[in-house]
Specification:
- It is a single chain.
- The N and C termini lie far apart (70 Å).
- By secondary structure, this protein is α/β, with parallel strands linked by helices.
- The strands form 4 sheets. It has a 7-stranded mixed β-sheet with strand order 14-15-13-12-10-16-17, with helices on both faces.
- The protein contains 13 helices and 17 strands.
- It is elongated.
Length: 425
């Protein structure tokens, strides 16, 4: 019972037990997780490090989409350390096990790591080195390079790593935590739910048209997206692949085609060029046991959604866009499992032999490890694009909700771009 005086009146509020004890769902606190579990998991991981001649391994919190809150299948750091906070970074070497987290989680991390082999590194506290500072100081004593799953390394983290004088990471295509994680959950493939125009306030064709125009203003022909909230906003879809987050696992590649170059007569962008988006959905992967009828039903539902939003839809992006579509915008539907560096390059070069590519802020180093000259991925980072004219940011929509790219999170001035001189070998 809470009591308070407000003005001249006295009132009380009773918290119902079911509400008072309610906690935010997410990765469950491993009540059965013991220091013995942590030691056994560390020993297994270190065995893998030895077999690969690695001196250490970095385990970030985020998934391959830069998500702060992750699905159970991507909760690798929580499984390895026992710490379940949403922010943290683990480093395992042959002689140390370190976990960095910020001030929000000092108490929780100390409790969950207590008595185990992990050392808590309190970020931004005096005398506590950052991951990069620690590695730069200790790297001569390590038994080999520090490894990382390239799908989990961001461009900004790679830049910070280089700026601190750390030796280059070893990009390990298979995640080493996954190799030792027994009974790892399956990746969710929840149903995708379409948002109506009344809910979204703007059609998919309009949004893609604005993206195409923004790409043209930045001197680029395509953009690769991996942030789930941005993709769901752009295509007016929602999902349930991550608990308490209405998103679905997906990637997207958006390119400008035709128009002034002699292609389609219409155009999704202000410059008269058509816009084509290739959308890779986990939902389309299915469970592996679905019937052809079930798969056809999914595609039909998505086709109806995108056509109602002014887009032509295809299952094969080698097909020319429907010239009868007045918006000049088309969406190609593909499986999430199909997406990789080669597939991204194929989608980008389908209509451009040598495209100028824009990388969204969250694009992963998994594509940096692949020798694609267009992305210069082996160089890890690129010059910043000059801020675009303010005119590309639209005013508040009629619904009163800002329709700026992805609720003002899609900031083009933070996008990284690189011109292409020649296609990859």
């Amino acid at each position: 019972m809470l009591h308070s005086v407000r003005g001249s009146s006295y009132y009380s509020v009773t918290l119902m037990p079911s509400v008072a004890k309610r906690k935010r769902p997410g990765v469950p606190i491993p009540s059965s997780f013991t220091p013995l579990d942590a030691s056994a998991r560390l020993a297994s991981l270190r065995s893998v490090l030895s077999s690969r001649s690695l001196g250490g391994y970095v385990v970030p919190s985020a998934d391959a989409h830069s998500s702060e809150y992750v699905s159970a299948v991507d909760a690798r750091r929580a499984w390895l350390t026992g710490f379940t906070g949403s922010a943290g970074l683990a480093l395992v070497t042959h002689s140390a096990a370190l976990l960095w987290t910020d001030g929000r989680y000092f108490v929780q991390a100390a409790e969950q790591l207590g008595g185990g082999p992990w050392t808590l590194m309190k970020m931004h506290e005096p005398g506590v080195p950052s991951l990069e500072e620690y590695v730069a100081k200790e790297q001569r004593c390590l038994r080999g390079p520090i490894g990382i799953d390239p799908a989990l390394a961001t461009l900004s983290a790679t830049k910070a790593w280089a700026d601190k004088g750390c030796n280059p990471c070893a990009l390990i295509e298979s995640n080493l935590v996954d190799e030792v994680w027994t009974h790892q959950p399956e990746r969710p493939a929840a149903a995708v739910v379409a948002r109506t125009l009344a809910d979204s306030g703007e059609s998919v064709s309009c949004k893609l048209g604005r993206v195409g125009s923004a790409l043209g203003m930045s001197g680029c022909d395509g953009i690769v997206l991996n942030a789930l909230d941005q993709i769901c906003w752009l295509f007016n879809i929602r999902g349930a692949d991550i608990e308490c987050n209405p998103v679905c696992f997906a990637y997207a590649v958006v390119t400008r085609t035709g128009g002034a170059d002699g292609g389609d007569a219409g155009g999704g962008g202000a410059d008269g060029k058509s816009v084509r988006a290739t959308l890779y959905l986990r939902w389309l992967d299915g469970s592996g046991t679905e019937s052809e009828a079930a798969e056809a039903k999914k595609k039909k539902a998505l086709d109806e959604h995108f056509r109602s939003e002014g887009c032509a839809t295809f299952n094969d992006d080698t097909v020319d866009a429907d010239s009868s579509t007045p918006t000049g915008v088309s969406v190609v539907l593909r499986r999430y499992a199909d997406f990789n560096a080669e597939e991204a390059w194929r989608a980008l070069t389908l209509h451009h032999a040598s495209p100028a590519v824009m990388l969204e802020r969250g694009i992963r180093a998994s594509h940096m490890s692949h020798p694609i000259s267009s992305l210069h991925l082996s160089h890890a980072f690129f010059p910043h694009v000059p801020p675009p004219p303010p005119s590309i940011y639209p005013p508040v929509s009629k619904s009163g909700v800002s329709s700026t790219f992805c609720l003002q999170k899609w900031r083009l001035l933070h996008l990284l771009s690189q011109k292409v001189a020649s296609p990859p070998p």
